[in-house]
Design a protein that fits this description.
Elements (H helix, E strand, L loop, with lengths): L1 H13 L2 E3 L2 E2 L4 H15 L6 E6 L5 H16 L4 H4 L8 E4 L2 E9 L2 E5 L10 E5 L6 E3 L13 H18 L4 H6 L3 E5 L2 H10 E5 L2 E4 H4 L2 E6 L2 E4 L11 E4 L2 H13 L4 E7 L7 H12 L5 E7 L5 H4 L6 E5 L2 H7 L10 H15 L1 E7 L8 H12 L6 H19 L4 H11 L6 H13 L7 H17 L5 H15 L4 E5 L2 H10 L7 E4 L9 E6 L18 E9 L3 H30 L19 H24 L8 E10 L4 E5 L4 E5 L4 E5 L9 E5 L8 H11 L3 H24 L3 H10 L6 H8 L11 H10 L3 H5 L1 H31 L12 H7 L6 E17 L10
Parallel strand pairs: 3-16, 3-17, 9-14, 9-15, 12-14, 15-16, 18-22, 19-20, 19-21, 21-22
Antiparallel strand pairs: 1-2, 1-10, 4-5, 4-8, 5-6, 6-7, 10-11, 12-13, 23-24, 23-28, 25-26, 25-27, 27-28
Helix pairs in contact: 1-2, 1-3, 2-3, 9-10, 12-13, 14-15, 14-18, 15-17, 15-18, 15-22, 17-18, 23-29, 24-29, 25-26, 27-29
InterPro entries: DrmE (IPR049794)
Length: 879
């Protein structure tokens, strides 16, 4: 172990690893964090966990991945004879740049065979076992031996493997070739793609992509993984990415039962709504592994109560507070040699210098009635059995109060925006009118008088800011001061519908950037940030007072908003309490005995006054709104009796709604990258453009709808493939229902039959909200056929695999067709057809993509926990 420690330190300190062609470790801050990562892998003590709370420096994740990848080489063990058991007779394999068929093992040699040709018949190659570890499964499309068609890709992977062998030395040659261990990384898909695209080794020997040196893949499910830069010449991933904690847990369970390759887990920016129990399950599973390690990398602006639940006594915790940065980073004022170094130092200096000023704006007299309004509305919320008109009254009144308090524009400006842009947002004037109607006819007569007084108060408030708004005046004053001082300024708004109005107001200041609060990140380069209003408080939701996206932050607030914003401050203190306590314990060990830990001192107990009440109120309002929307949708008859667990409640700019389930995959159009990307519901944000079926009342999968239309065109081959891709799932589902079996029962049967599959894998195949086409290996279909007592599938497993592969390929082509159409509609640019594109005849037959798919922009998204009828989930409904 000591040798491994020394090896890791010496290699990682000297490795020529780059990001964006600049050294990954570019300053003292990056060096210190790299050493933390190395230390957690090399430590012999009980502490197997590291939490790093950083100021928004995204380079820490690639550094942690690189350290884990090298650690997997040093701690991996290779059983030479066992290695060859993964190959089946006649399986296509590669050795160097050549493709062969695997024959078997004879004593101490491995026998490979080449296809007959004009020059040779029954040609075999015998490779000593010790020198055949670079024999790999060949996953390319070619079914012939030789080098034709794969020379380039195989050569690139072979050279990358040789390069790694040279880096780690002869002692670890076998481990470098086989790479027996794996690191599981949970992060956003965009971040994973960015790292894999841009992280390279650069030295005198050449340029090698990290993903070729350490094969990396993206996991869509337990058994569906896609390698970065192709899978030719690659066996199993050394780095496996996913964006779902739940899927990471399933992958670990599956790995625990079978391969036991995963030795490290890296969690990047845990979402506030992630399940603490699932994270702790991951910690428990990885804690059982030999040399098992877990690293959590969390940006300070995304700290929430959920992090506290996963901190244990064994968690070494590093918090890069302003005081720690000042006392430990001795090159704060060095001249950065590259843009990435400069960006890191800007963030660090911004964190040290940052300040938040709360500017209480003069309130209009009409706003003084809000306290009375809120008191009455809270009384209504606490009524246990409320009539539907009372619920509507509550939502309407609270919606108006929130609008009036959060708006930094006049109501006349907002009404003009709604009218001129055709936005499906109810006009505030009409909402006031509806509030009057509800108040006058409230079913509970005992509350009518107070309800009418609230309606009058809100009508007066609407009139008072119809043509003049003090918040707008203050915003413009602050922008003028910033402009005079030469400061780069950003304006933060809480709702997407506010952005266009504020952009118009700020048009005299062209350098000003208007930002949606949920999309505020450390990537922005600003001197001053003006927050016009804070969103409604939600436990573990976005906290505008937690981030330090600018050196100076100014919060504009009315006197009536002070209490809410005080709660935001207390929520941040509460979330940091356990983290600071852990950081204080760890600081002497991580930074040295002389480090000053006073910055981690916290109050014995954070003042919770008002927090519980306001959080309860927000939960109740969300429940009322969700019940009202779902209740309206349920009033339309539908045959669905099954339910799905929804975790996100979404409102679109059209006025439509959606409930998203945990395992749903949304297709989102990335305007910046001009492409369709897959997102988990927990990754969705206001402003995201989500693609649905044009006939969303009947169809949730628009890709499947287009696929069926291509079949109707008369493509019999596609029809056969499609039928098989659906048949295996129907057979297995029907069999389970008829026998009243669980996923665990089926997993047990498959294991007994010699084709083991984990219960979570089977669940992934069969979930109603999953878009999995089918397993990717032939053996899985044999297992399905045997377990479901279906000879058709068991005897034709290869055929079913090929059909699922074909349908997967066709789905990719359809997505590219939709993507190209959206890009053309947005930019006017027609993209040339690529390899994964539908034929000209197919696109001509399909015609305008708007017949099959529609775009909806998320206006608002809130966490929820409820079971809903499946016909309402993962599709837009209502208006």
């Amino acid at each position: 172990m000591e040798d491994a420690i020394n090896e890791t330190y010496s290699i990682m300190r000297a490795v020529p690893l780059t990001l964006n062609s600049y050294p990954l470790i570019c300053n003292k801050y990056m060096q210190t964090n790299r050493d933390f990562f190395i230390r957690v892998f090399n430590d012999k003590s009980q502490a197997k966990e590291l939490l790093v709370v950083h100021p928004g420096t995204d380079r820490l994740l690639p550094s942690a991945i690189a350290c884990a990848a090298f650690a997997s080489v040093f701690y991996g063990e290779v059983n030479v004879k066992e290695y060859y058991r993964r190959f089946n007779p006649d399986q296509m394999v590669s050795l160097g740049i050549e493709r062969y068929r695997f024959v078997g093992v004879d004593g101490d040699v491995c026998i490979l065979k080449s296809d007959d040709n004009k020059k040779a018949v029954n040609s075999t190659t015998r490779v000593p076992l010790d020198f055949g570890l670079n024999i790999r499964p060949n996953n390319g499309s070619s079914l012939k031996t030789g080098t034709q068609g794969s020379r380039g890709s195989l050569a690139k992977v072979a050279k990358a493997s040789e390069y790694l062998q040279g880096l780690v030395g002869g002692t670890y040659r076998n481990q470098a070739i086989v790479q027996p261990l794996c690191t599981l990384v949970v992060c956003s898909r965009d971040k994973a793609q960015y790292i894999m695209d841009r992280m390279t080794f650069i030295d005198d020997e050449g340029v090698f992509r990290f993903a070729d040196v350490f094969p990396a893949a993206w996991a869509r499910s337990v058994d569906e993984k896609r390698f970065y830069f192709g899978e030719v010449g690659k066996s199993v991933p050394t780095v496996l990415f996913t964006n779902r904690i739940s899927l990471a847990r399933e992958i670990l369970h599956d790995d625990q039962d079978y391969e036991k390759r995963i030795f490290a887990v890296i969690l990047d920016d845990i979402e506030s709504t992630e399940s603490a129990s699932e994270i702790n399950d991951i910690k428990e599973l990885i804690g059982r592994r030999q040399n098992g390690r877990i690293i959590i990398i969390q940006s300070a602006d995304k700290i929430s109560d959920s992090i506290n639940a996963v901190i244990s006594d064994n968690t070494r915790t590093v918090v890069w507070s302003p005081e720690i940065l000042l006392s430990t980073i001795d090159d704060l004022y060095h001249q950065p040699e590259n843009p990435d170094d400069r960006a890191i130092m800007d963030i660090i200096n911004r964190t040290i210098d940052s300040s938040i000023r709360r500017d209480v704006v003069k309130s209009l007299d009409a706003f003084l009635e809000f306290k009375y309004c809120k008191t009455f509305l809270k009384k209504l919320v606490h009524i246990r059995e409320k009539a539907p008109d009372v619920d509507e009254y509550i939502l309407c009144a609270y919606g108006l109060i929130n609008l009036f308090e959060q708006a930094a524009f006049t109501m006349d400006e907002y009404e003009r925006y709604i009218e001129s842009n055709g936005v499906r947002i109810r006009s505030p004037q009409k909402q006031v009118g509806r509030l009057y109607e509800l108040a006058d006819s409230l079913s509970d007569k005992g509350y009518r008088e107070d309800a009418q007084l609230v309606a009058i108060a809100l009508k007066n408030a609407y009139k008072s800011i119809s043509a003049h708004n003090f918040k707008k005046d203050e915003l413009l004053r602050c922008l003028q001061i910033a402009s005079d001082e030469g400061k780069l300024c950003g304006v933060v708004v809480p709702k997407k519908s506010f952005m266009n109005v504020i952009e118009e107001i700020c048009s005299d200041f062209p350098q000003v950037r208007v930002i949606l609060s949920s999309r505020l990140s450390q990537d922005v380069v600003l001197d001053r940030l003006i927050i016009t209003a804070t969103p409604n408080i939600k436990r573990d939701g976005f906290n505008p007072l937690a981030g330090k996206a600018a050196s100076e932050t100014m919060l504009l607030e009315y006197g009536d908003e002070v209490a809410k914003n005080d709660c935001y401050q207390r929520m941040h203190e509460r979330a940091l309490a356990a983290i600071n306590s852990a950081a204080k314990r760890s600081a002497p060990e991580m930074f040295g005995e002389t480090v000053d830990t006073k910055s981690f001192d916290t109050e014995d107990q954070v003042d919770e006054h008002g927090l519980d009440e306001i959080e309860f109120l927000e939960r109740e309002l969300t429940n009322i709104e969700t019940d009202a929307v779902i209740g309206e949708a349920l009033s339309h008859l539908h045959s669905s009796t099954t339910t799905l667990r929804a975790i996100r409640f979404v409102q679109f700019d059209t006025g439509e709604w959606a409930l998203f389930s945990k395992y749903y995959t949304a297709y989102v159009f990335d305007e910046k990258e001009k492409k369709l990307v897959e997102k988990s519901p927990i990754d969705l944000l206001p402003g995201d453009i989500v693609i649905f079926s044009a006939d969303s009342e009947k169809i949730t999968d628009f890709v499947d709808d287009i696929l069926k239309r291509l079949i109707l065109r008369g493509n019999s081959t596609l029809a056969e493939h499609y039928e098989r891709s659906k048949y295996w799932k129907k057979i297995l589902n029907d069999y389970m229902r008829s026998k009243n079996l669980t996923y665990g029962d089926i997993a047990g049967t498959m294991k007994d039959l010699g084709h083991p599959r984990h219960a979570v894998t089977i669940g992934t195949w069969l979930r109603e909200d999953s878009i999995i086409v089918g397993p990717r290996d032939e053996d899985a279909f044999i297992a399905i056929g045997l377990a479901a007592d279906n000879n058709e599938i068991a005897d034709h497993a290869q055929l079913y695999k090929e059909s699922c592969d074909h349908i997967r390929s066709q789905r990719i082509k359809i997505l590219n067709y939709v993507q190209a159409s959206i890009i053309q509609s947005v930019t006017g640019i027609r993209r040339s057809k690529g390899q994964d594109s539908l034929s000209r005849d197919e696109t001509s037959y399909l015609g305008d993509v708007q017949k099959y798919a529609k775009k909806l922009t998320i206006e608002r998204i809130v966490p929820c926990e409820r079971f809903a009828p499946s016909h309402l989930v993962n599709r837009p409904f209502g208006r």
